[in-house]
Amino acid sequence: MKKFNNDFMMGAATAAHQVEGNNIYSDFWTMEQVPHSMYKEPSLEAVDHYNKFKEDIQLLVDVGLNTYRFSIEWARIEPTKGDFDKKEIEHYREVLEFCHQKNVTPIVTLHHFSSPKWLIIEGGWESESTINYFENYSRYVVSELGDLIPYICTINEANMGKQIAKIIKRMTDTNGTNQTQKVDSGDIQVGLNVDMKEKMENYYRALGEAFGMDPRNIQTFHNPRTDNGERIIMECHEKARSVIKEINPAIKVGITFSLYDHQALHGGEAFVEQEQHEDFLNYLPYLQEDDFLGVQNYSRKIHGPEGVIKPDEGTRLTKMGYEYYPEALGNVIRFVSKHWDKPIIVTENGLSTDHDEERVEFIERALTGVHQCMDEGIDVIGYTYWSLLDNFEWQLGYDQTFGLIAVDRTTQTRHPKESLSFLGNVKKSGLNR
């Protein structure tokens, strides 16, 4: 029996825009609503977590879990530039206080993909001014709520824009054949509609009208990012960390990254080294004063002499098109630990499937890898499964089912899955193997 100690943080994660509903001041709300939208459907009420958060956290508590990672929505806190909404900060105070009442450790993310619409109009994530705007937002949240927050992730998947840039490059790369390369949904760890080239022109024209600006200047967090944008993201992180430590030095501060388990066949070693550098290693100079690192992993990529090798027809895939490979998590933790000697929190790990027994198996195998890493002396202090609830998977809408809890969106009724109880039993009793 492999047991996790009592202090180990185990639970589940959500993101505000994906679960709360009616995030009307955000850039994503705008992008979902425009004509020719690349989004399969709009988020609308999502799964109404904004109003049902107590019920949802209680379901987590009832099975024995002790940690909840969630994001505070910047577009709610600052719906227009410089105007902070006291009612909304009090909402998140209520969420945090409920966590503490239930002995649940809250891990708060300040930015999880969605941004205020006004921020994009001001230049978005390629604009120098965003550094100051994010600093001001962080200062307000931590000044108001910092005494209730033990852990803060400043930015979720800070490397996502770079990963999307590589995907877009592959989509538009003709390799001299005038045929664009096929890109699969499993190529990136986020709900991105990759069948989009022919629709993009109409979509961006509509976006330009909705944002009132040249669509070429619209820079959301999910836009392909330049090197300058990469710097801006990481300086946002540094400014937020500085503010947090100034206001409340006891808060543990980190950031999260989307990390694949990159594996090399003979001849693929250089590709793996390049991917590991681009995904993680080049960010290390910005992280030296962080307290922990958030690792987010869903699958692996295998590289040969020509680059990524696509899974063959017999490969077991998840509903998102990733290879079903729970062992990737342990491998990624080991890779990170070679370059990072502070605590690691698995801030996301999971799969989309219509068969919950696959999720149970996935969790067991992934957590076996986590436990092995801890036995090897790696300082892993927490694991939050993605996601607590079936939710809005960005451009792919509501079809993807990552959750430990199913939701009937016609009534917003919760239906806990066996995997929720299984994860709780692992926390209480350990792994069977």
How would you portray this structure in words?
The chain is an alpha/beta fold and 433 residues long. It has one domain (9-260, 287-297, 325-429): Glycosidases (TIM Barrel, Alpha-Beta Barrel). The protein is built from 14 helices and 14 strands. The protein has helices at residues 16-19, 27-33, 49-62, 74-77, 86-101, 117-121, 129-145, 160-172, 200-211, 227-247, 269-279, 328-337, 356-375, 418-429, and strands at residues 9-13, 67-71, 105-111, 151-155, 252-254, 256-258, 261-264, 293-296, 300-304, 307-308, 344-348, 380-386, 405-408, 413-416. The chain has a nine-stranded parallel beta sheet with strand order 5-4-3-2-1-12-11-8-6. A three-stranded mixed beta sheet has the order 7-9-10. The protein has a two-stranded antiparallel ribbon with strand order 13-14. Strand 9 (300-304) and strand 10 (307-308) form a beta hairpin. Helix 3 (49-62) packs parallel to helix 5 (86-101). The model is unreliable at 176-180 (pLDDT under 50). Pfam families: Glyco_hydro_1 (PF00232). InterPro entries: GH (IPR017853), Glyco_hydro_1 (IPR001360), Glyco_hydro_1_AS (IPR018120). One of its GO terms (biological process) is carbohydrate catabolic process. Keywords: Glycosidase, Hydrolase. Belongs to the glycosyl hydrolase 1 family.
SSE diagram, text form:
Elements lengths: L8 E5 L2 H4 L7 H7 L15 H14 L4 E5 L2 H4 L8 H16 L3 E7 L5 H5 L7 H17 L5 E5 L4 H13 L27 H12 L15 H21 L4 E3 L1 E3 L2 E4 L4 H11 L13 E4 L3 E5 L2 E2 L19 H10 L6 E5 L7 H20 L4 E7 L18 E4 L4 E4 L1 H12 L4
Parallel strand pairs: 1-2, 1-12, 2-3, 3-4, 4-5, 6-8, 7-9, 8-11, 11-12
Antiparallel strand pairs: 9-10, 13-14
Helix pairs in contact: 3-5, 7-10, 12-13, 13-14
GO molecular function: beta-glucosidase activity
Pfam family, one: Glyco_hydro_1
Keywords: Glycosidase, Hydrolase
